[in-house]
Amino acid sequence: MEAASNLSSSLPLSPSRYRTTAVLTRFQRIASLSTAAAGALPSCRTHLTRLHQRRSAILPLRCNVRESVPDQEMASIDVEDPRIAKIAKAIRVIPDFPKPGILFQDITTLLLDTKAFRDTIDLFVERYRGKDITVVAGIEARGFIFGPPIALAIGAKFVPMRKPKKLPGEVISEEYSLEYGTDKIEMHVGAVEAGERALVIDDLIATGGTLCAAIRLLERVGVDVVECACVIELHGLKGRERLGDKPLFVLVNAAA
Questions:
Q1: Residue 82: cis peptide before it, omega within 30 degrees of 0
Q2: How far apart are CA 80 and CA 11, in angstroms?
Q3: At CA 13, angle to CA 9 and CA 14, rounded to 5?
Q4: What is the chain's mean pLDDT, rounded?
Q5: How far is Cα 135 from Cα 8, in angstroms, rounded to an integer?
Q6: Among 54, 166, 177, 207, which residue has the least CB neighbours within 10 Å?
Q7: What does the angle CA 174 – CA 179 – CA 181 come to, to the nearest 5 degrees?
Q8: How far is CA 54 from CA 47, 51, 62, 82, in A?
Q9: Which residues, given as ranges, of the chain have pLDDT below 50?
Q10: Which of 135, 89, 80 shows the shortest CA–CA distance to 250?
C-alpha cells in the first residue's frame, strides 16, 4: 500500500468581473481576466483559511501534479469535484489497527457504496482516457481492485505487481526498504515492453516505498511511467517526496 496534497480553490469571482467588450483583442481580454483574478485573491485566501479550519481526519483533495513534468495537460487546472467529498466520506477510519497509534483507512466501506466506488473509478478514467497509456500496473493487493476497471475503460492492459513468490512464471523483481528490513515487488517477464506508457496505481500512499519500487521496476525494462495514482494519501508520512519528480495524483488526503 502506498501514495498528494496541495489544496487549491476556485476563485470566488462574480460574473461581472469576466465581462469584456467585443472590440477588445484576444490579448487584452486575457489581461482583463488576469486583473480580475488578482483582485479576487484576498477573498480566495480567506475562503481557503476557513476551509482548512473545517477539515477533519479525511480531507477531500484538489488533485495536483507538478508543473515541471511532461504531460501537464492532465493536471493543468486544479478543481475540486463534488464527487470527492462523497468518496472521502465513504472511507472508514479505524483507530489502533493493525497496531496502537495507527489510523487505518478502510476502503471496504467505499466498495460497499456503489455510487462512491463508481465515482472513484470514473475520476481516474476521466483523467487518463486519451493519454496513450498502454499499461496500468496495479500494486498488490488493493491496486488490483482499482486497476483492472480503469485499464478496461481506457483500453490498456493490466499488469499485477506482486509480492515475492506469488507469480508462477519467470519474474523480474525490485527490492525496497521497510522500517525493519527489506521486501520485493515482482512482475512477469514479458508483461510489458520497452516504450510503453504506464500508470502505476494503488489504494494508498504512505511512505512511498512500494510505489518507488514499482517505478524503478518498470523503468528498468524501458517503460515510461507517466504518473502514479492513489485513492488516499497519508500526507504526514511524506511519501510524495520519495517519488522525486514523478507525478502523483490522489483523490483524498488523510491523517496518518
A1: no
A2: 12
A3: 145
A4: 78
A5: 30
A6: 54
A7: 55
A8: 11, 5, 16, 16
A9: 1-78
A10: 80
Q: What angle do CA 2, 192, 249 make, to 5 degrees?
A: 30
Among 62, 142, 162, 242, the one annotated catalytic: 142
Give the C-alpha distances (Å, rounded to integers) separating 72 from 75, 125, 153, 174, 240.
5, 16, 21, 28, 17
Tell me the three state secondary structure of residue 40: helix
How much is the pLDDT for 255? 83
Cell numbers 482516457 correspond to 129
CA atoms within 13 A on the CB side of 139: 28
Is 62 catalytic? The answer is: no
140 catalytically annotated: no
Q: What is the pLDDT of residue 188?
A: 98
Q: Angle formed by the axes of helices 82-90 and 114-128, to 10°?
A: 130
